[in-house]
Amino acid sequence: MIRWGLIGASTIAHEWVIGAIRASGGEIVSVMSTNVERGAKYAADHGIPHSVNTLDALLNGQPIDAVYISTTNELHKDQVLASAKAGKHILCEKPLATSLADAKVMVDACKAANVVFATNHHLRNAATHTAMRDAVAAGKIGKPLAAKVFHAVYLPPHLQGWRLDRPDAGGGVILDITVHDTDTLRYVLNDDPVEAIASTQQSGLAKAGLADAVMGVIRFKSGLIAMFHDGFTTKYSETGFEVHGTEGSLVGRNVMSQRPVGVVNLRNADGETELKLDHRNLYETGIAKFHSAIAGDGKPAASGEDGLWSLAAGLAVAKAAETGTAQPIDPGL
Ligand code: NDP
């Protein structure tokens, strides 16, 4: 039984992660919120026995083995460093930090403290992406040449807060969505990105100079090129993920989702076949792997290094859009 402390009385914990921890046999001991009333209400609403208002009270006053960090992004670094110092295993939300230097310090600190450090890139846990990864690895499409990611959505009104007006918190579409795309591309292709070009849009939904949509191209080590469209502004578009190879294509529809949904078709000289998928809750799959990693059995679905890669790619995309030039992607590992 892993005993958890939640750092952040967040929407994502409420909507997905609290349920996933409990479904995977974990116990949630306490939640930390900076606001006394909100924290107490959050704990009561979710059947969490304790709420505390400082990191120290959570890390040193409660019997916990692991923490889930889902505060705004500028807070992740100090919370990870303190948790590692207290010997807690850490599941941290993406983006790990707002700078690569901070994320590196976090990865190094967790290594030195010998705690499991995972990034909550849930899309790796989708049956759709795993089926595409397996098909690519089995050579079903020959040599992968190109990929397309369609991940433009409409940011739901209840999330239209810091993502739209706080650059200091890592707001904007790139650190929110593009980091998921780049992680999913790395996972499906078993390849690493090397360079990005991109163009952003400010349609008025996001303020303070933040982008609410972005399109771009990422080049991978193998030579594959991947195009992506991420947005907060498209109410009626469908998500998708495609990989095109010398001998076939994989076409995923409705696959860039938090829910266990979507279909994947394999197209090749034999025609079109729908891949068989065993859909399961993505967050539960991730938490189960994290629990196993703590027990010394395997690795988390996405490690701290994976989070470093996705952040490096996201920051390169942002800089490419800002400068109008191609930017190298280098996590410094
Ligand atoms: P929220 O805005 O819901 O929560 C972030 C912080 O805002 C909380 O820690 C809380 O502070 C404060 N807060 C929450 N509700 C209120 C309120 N009503 N009034 C004032 N303050 C409030 O963030 P999200 O859950 O959307 O995102 C949190 C993190 O999770 C981010 O890093 C994000 O990128 C990531 N994320 C990941 C997803 C995934 O699928 N992997 C999906 C969505 C988000 P306090 O704790 O002090 O109370």
Could you characterize the architecture of this molecule?
With 333 residues, the protein is an alpha/beta fold. It has two domains: 3-122 and 286-299, NAD(P)-binding Rossmann-like Domain (Rossmann fold), CATH 3.40.50; 123-280 and 310-328, Dihydrodipicolinate Reductase, domain 2, CATH 3.30.360. The chain has ten helices and 15 strands. Strands 14-13-12-11-7-10-9-8-15 form a nine-stranded mixed sheet. It has a six-stranded parallel sheet with strand order 3-2-1-4-5-6, with helices on both faces. Strand 5 (89-92), helix 5 and strand 6 (117-119) form a beta-alpha-beta unit. The longest helix is centred in the C-terminal third of the chain and has 20 residues, at 304-323. NADPH dihydro-nicotinamide-adenine-dinucleotide phosphate binds at residues 8-12, 33-35, 38-39, 70-73, 93-94, 120, 122, 159, 161-162, 176, 258.
Number of structural units classed as domains:
2
Overall mean confidence score, pLDDT: 98
> Helix and strand string, N-terminal first?
EHEHEHEHEHEHEHHEEEEEEEHHE
Helix content: 25-40%
The proportion of residues in beta strands is 15-25%
Largest sheet: 9 strands, mixed
Quickly list its features.
333 residues, alpha/beta, Rossmann fold, Dihydrodipicolinate Reductase, domain 2, 2 domains, nine-stranded mixed sheet, six-stranded parallel sheet, 15 strands, 36% helix, 25% strand, binds NADPH dihydro-nicotinamide-adenine-dinucleotide phosphate
